[in-house]
Each structure stands twice: as structure tokens, then as C-alpha cells.
Q: What sequence folds into this?
């Protein structure tokens, strides 16, 4: 039911864009106003969430580790898993951000019935790591490729990424590898949520909605490239106009483009309020970005306020006569 509601929500968004462009001719709204609003909401929401997280006090060193801490000289330290230097933290964070190091070690727990009855068993969950890695890297390369619409001249690294990604020359236009990998990866992540009972039980509509949105964006983008040809020059003219703050609406782009653009705008506006904010939160995770040097440095909580304590001695001075009348023993007569 939760997946169905999210799917219907995406269908409604597609219908809104289709009717708004084809029936109401609201090209200015869907081509200029909504993209600017989405950009402001994305940047403003992203900065707000990051600043809010950055202000959260972290009074203790709480890095999660799975390696040997720095101890006696003859005990080998896990310098990346349990870093005590800034360099170790940087390497650990980089391996987490680019290669999902902790997810690689993720395991799955199952209750299996054997000859001696039910028993917990632990196994590898590498498919989740592979799917997540393919999804995120494909997403990144697709975003880099799309920079050619917003920049003139097109940077050299964008041209290199485009040529490598389109090396699979089967007809015209060339098939992008990341398009296929991205669609397969997001489909895998969706099927995992509806096939595995434990994951399905904890999944919410907020988990399905981004998957359907991203899947719809990928499908609409592939339709534009391989089936419903659009005017690429007009698209770049619109994109450059938006970036240069001199927007224009070229004629004859097609409704499929505005559907694609509208879905991207909704995803951008939704991004700061969703779980997708882990993109920014990973950098502020105290369990990852801290050195584990508790044995080397004494850490004092800098947020401890100066408090005025009311000691027992002051308490007795204040209520001594009343305590005597009540028969309560006092230290001073």
C-alpha cells in the first residue's frame, strides 16, 4: 500500500506536467518559475540542514570502529579503521564516501530452521553494496554529463566522461553505459524493498517515493534520448538562459522534456526534507569524522555551563532552625 501510494503520487506529478504543458501551455511556469523555485528550495534547505547539524553539540569522542586502537608500541594499530590522526580520518572518510566501506562489511541476519530447530544465521550482503555503489557512481557520472547543457564551452573533463560513457556504439545515438547501470541499480534497490520481508516491513512511503521519482526521471531521460527526439540546441539554450539569469523559452522542445524537468525539480525541492540528505550528513557524522584519541588526549566538554551549586552546607544554614524543630539531625548546632 505504501509503495502504491508513492507510485500514484509520481503518476499524478507526471499528469500535472503533461496537462500543464500540452493543455494549458504553461511553458513559462514549468520551464522557468518551477526550476528557479526548486533550486532555491534545494540550496536553502540543504544549507539549513547542514548548519543545524553543525550546531549540534558533540561533547564526546564517539567514533565507531572495528579495528585495534592505538595502544602499546608492540600492538599493531588499525590506522584507517581506528584513526588517531587527521590523515587517518580523511582516508577513512574518503573510503566511506567513495567506496561505501562500512556497507561492504554489512551482513544479513536470517532465522533458519534446521534439524535442531530455528537458529540465527549470518551471511554476506554484498549485493546491496554493489547495487548502491553502481547507483551512486552512475548518478554522479550522469550529473557530470549533463553539465554540457549548462556550460559553454564544455569543460574537457565533461567531454571525457561523455565519450567514455558512450563508448558502446550501437547505432545512433550511442548508448550510455550509465543509463543502463543506473536503471538496473534503482530497480534492484526497489525490488529489494518489496521482496525481502524484513526490509519491506520497515519501509515507509518516504522510502518508495524517491525511488519512483528517480526511476521516472531515468526513464523519461532515456525516452528523450532514444525514442522521442527533442531539439538539443533548444534545450541547451533554455539551460544556459537559466544559469545566466536571462531565461528564454525556445519553441518546440516537447512535453517529454518538461515532464523530465518537472520531476527533477520536484526531487530537488524534496531533497532537503528527505533521507536523501545523507549526502550532506555523511560529512557531519561524529561517528566517522572524529579521531579516536581518548587514551592520548583528555577531552573536556566545552558546552558545560557555569552552574551555581546549592551545597548541603548552605541548605542547612537556610533551614537549620526548622530542621531542629522537626527533629532532623544537623551537623552544626
A:
Amino acid at each position: 500500500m505504501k509503495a502504491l501510494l508513492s507510485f500514484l503520487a509520481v503518476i499524478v506529478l507526471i499528469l500535472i506536467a503533461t496537462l500543464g504543458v500540452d493543455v494549458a501551455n504553461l511553458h513559462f511556469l514549468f520551464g522557468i518559475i518551477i526550476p528557479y523555485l526548486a533550486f532555491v528550495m534545494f540550496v536553502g534547505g540543504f544549507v539549513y540542514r547542514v548548519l543545524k547539524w553543525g550546531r549540534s553539540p558533540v561533547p564526546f569522542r564517539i567514533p565507531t570502529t572495528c579495528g585495534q586502537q592505538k595502544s602499546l608500541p608492540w600492538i599493531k594499530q588499525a590506522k584507517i579503521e581506528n584513526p588517531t590522526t587527521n590523515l587517518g580520518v580523511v582516508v577513512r572518510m574518503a573510503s566511506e564516501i567513495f567506496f561505501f566501506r562500512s556497507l561492504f562489511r554489512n551482513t544479513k541476519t536470517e532465522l533458519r530452521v534446521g534439524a535442531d530447530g530455528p537458529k540465527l544465521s549470518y551471511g554476506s550482503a554484498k549485493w546491496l553494496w554493489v547495487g548502491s555503489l553502481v547507483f551512486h557512481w552512475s548518478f554522479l557520472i550522469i550529473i557530470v554529463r549533463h553539465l554540457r547543457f549548462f556550460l559553454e564551452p564544455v569543460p574537457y573533463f565533461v567531454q571525457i566522461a561523455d565519450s567514455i560513457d558512450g563508448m558502446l556504439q550501437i547505432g545512433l545515438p550511442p548508448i550510455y553505459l550509465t543509463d543502463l547501470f543506473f536503471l538496473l541499480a534503482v530497480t534492484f534497490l526497489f525490488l529489494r524493498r518489496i521482496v525481502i520481508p524484513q526490509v519491506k516491513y520497515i519501509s515507509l512511503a518516504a522510502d518508495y517515493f524517491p525511488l519512483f521519482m528517480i526511476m521516472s526521471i531515468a526513464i523519461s531521460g532515456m525516452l528523450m534520448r532514444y525514442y522521442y527526439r527533442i531539439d538539443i540546441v533548444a534545450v541547451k539554450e533554455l539551460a544556459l538562459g537559466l544559469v545566466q539569469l536571462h531565461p528564454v523559452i525556445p519553441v518546440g522542445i516537447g512535453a517529454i522534456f518538461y515532464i523530465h524537468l518537472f520531476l527533477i525539480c520536484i526531487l530537488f525541492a524534496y531533497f532537503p526534507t528527505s533521507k536523501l540528505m545523507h549526502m550532506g550528513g555523511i560529512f557531519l557524522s561524529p561517528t566517522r569524522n572524529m579521531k579516536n584519541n581518548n587514551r592520548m588526549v583528555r577531552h573536556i566538554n566545552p558546552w558545560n555551563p557555569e552552574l551555581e551549586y546549592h551545597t548541603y552546607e548552605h541548605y542547612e544554614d537556610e533551614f537549620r532552625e526548622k530542621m531542629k524543630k522537626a527533629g532532623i539531625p544537623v551537623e552544626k548546632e
User: Anything to note?
Assistant: Residues 2-325 form a domain with the Fumarate Reductase Cytochrome B subunit fold (CATH 1.20.950.20). DSSP finds 13 helices and two strands in the chain. The longest helix spans residues 27-54.
